Amino acid sequence: MERTATTEPRRELARITLAVLTLGALILGSLWILRPFLGAVIWATMVVVATWPLLLWLQRRLWNRRALATTVMTSALLLVFVVPLSLAIVTIVSEADRLTGWVKSLGDLRLLAPPEFIAKLPIVGAKITATWEQTVASGAEGLMAKVAPYANDIVRWFVAEVGSLGFLVVQFLLTVILAAVMYSGGEGAAATVRRFGRRLAGERGDNAVVLAGQAIRAVALGVGVTAIVQSVAGGVALGIAGVPFAGLLTAVMFMLCIAQLGPTLVLVPAVIWTFWSGATGWGVFLLICTVIIGTMDNFLRPILIKRGADLPLLLILAGVIGGLLAFGLVGIFVGPVLLAVSYTLLREWIAEAELPEEEGVALPTPRPAS
After folding, report:
1. Where in the chain are the domains?
2. Is the Cβ–Cβ distance between 137 and 103 less than 8 Å?
3. What's the Cα-to-Cα distance from 174 to each of 78, 196, 205, rounded to whole Å?
4. What residues have CB less than 8 Å from 68, skipping those under 6 apart?
5. Residues 256, 263: Cα–Cα separation, whole Å
6. Cβ(114)–Cβ(132) under 8 Å?
7. Who's near 201: CB < 8 A, 6+ residues apart?
8. How many whole angstroms separate alpha carbon 263 and alpha carbon 238?
9. Alpha-carbon distance 255 to 246, whole Å?
10. Separation between Cα atoms, residue 77 and residue 48, nearest integer Å
């Protein structure tokens, strides 16, 4: 009897261990098979969760027909993802000769002396003036020699990116198709995810799923809309000031805004170029626009993020930047979601601890020195 009672727990432990290993192997195998599609699935999920209120609004306007609303949203996604990419490729190809000629013409450019007001700037004025005068003394050829190594790196990066362009287009199309499927049956998918969260951690797991959706909408509003507003405003300012390749620079500004680097990395060189070319009036105009557009996110982003989720702004920004560095472009959404869920669960877990006193924790009385 004692031997049978001893072997039963061992058999039960072996059965549980094998069951867990088998389940883990099935999960890893499924993820390995779906690995080529995981990026598109994550992007489609983020897009659908962020735009779900818009889908419901369209459905109410279209006689409560989900099929019509899904068709409109899918068409809009095609316009947002595929059409701008195609237009960018056509623009780059059509402007290739012009861009090459413009780069070659830089060799004949006569560099002007630095304006007097730059030397009067505090702290950095003398250093900027000395560097500028050194550049003028070396001429355009010296400037091109300094820029050439960076230009070669940019060309190599661009060639590598164009090489993966076909895969990128396929991913975009797959994302749109998966988003259309999720739009058509979003309620069932959301209920399944919430049941899974409740199965894992009860009501706390259900709340974590809802919070993840709110964090996705907060990032889409705070980061996405702010990037669109800043890049469009910057592109209009560049076009009015007559800066060449304003459309291409607008796309670069949008990517920089998404990466939380801001549009000033494009606008400041444009201001310098405008002053350098002798258009002082347009340079002043573009400088004012740069100050306004560059600081616009300081008040626009917090307002939009608070509309999506009541989470600390620093938490969202840390999630966006850290997620971008850790997971790439999709990390812009994955990072804030992970931090938001972890932060909320940790906050609720800490709040469950009872304090020694109702009105606060009593500080310990210091002992007198012996």
Report:
1. 202-349
2. no
3. 11, 26, 30
4. 58, 59, 62
5. 6
6. yes
7. 208
8. 12
9. 14
10. 10
Say how many residues make up the chain.
370
State how far the alpha carbon of 177 is from the alpha carbons of 39, 45, 75, 186, 215, in Å: 13, 11, 11, 14, 24
pTM over 0.70: no
Per-residue confidence in pLDDT tens, the chain, 370 aa = 555 555 666 667 778 888 889 988 998 998 899 888 887 888 788 888 888 888 999 999 999 898 999 999 998 888 776 665 556 555 555 555 555 555 555 555 555 666 666 666 677 677 777 777 776 666 555 555 665 555 555 555 555 555 455 566 677 788 888 889 999 888 888 888 889 888 887 887 888 888 888 877 877 777 778 888 898 899 999 989 888 878 778 877 887 887 777 898 889 888 888 887 878 888 889 999 999 998 888 888 888 877 766 777 778 778 878 887 877 766 777 787 788 778 877 877 787 666 565 555 554 555 555 4
Surface-to-core class of residue 145, CB atoms within 10 Å of its CB (0-12 exposed, 13-18 middle, 19+ buried): exposed
Q: Where are the alpha helices (DSSP H) in 95-185?
A: 96-105, 116-119, 125-163, 165-184
Q: Is the Cβ–Cβ distance between 308 and 217 less than 8 Å? A: yes
In the block, residue with structure tokens 């706390």? 204
Close Cβ partners of 362 (under 8 Å, ≥ 6 residues apart):
356
The first and second tokens of residue 70, run together, are 């899904």
From CA 150, how far away is CA 255, in angstroms rounded? 20
Residue 110 backbone zone (phi > 0: left; psi -120 to 50: alpha; other: beta): beta
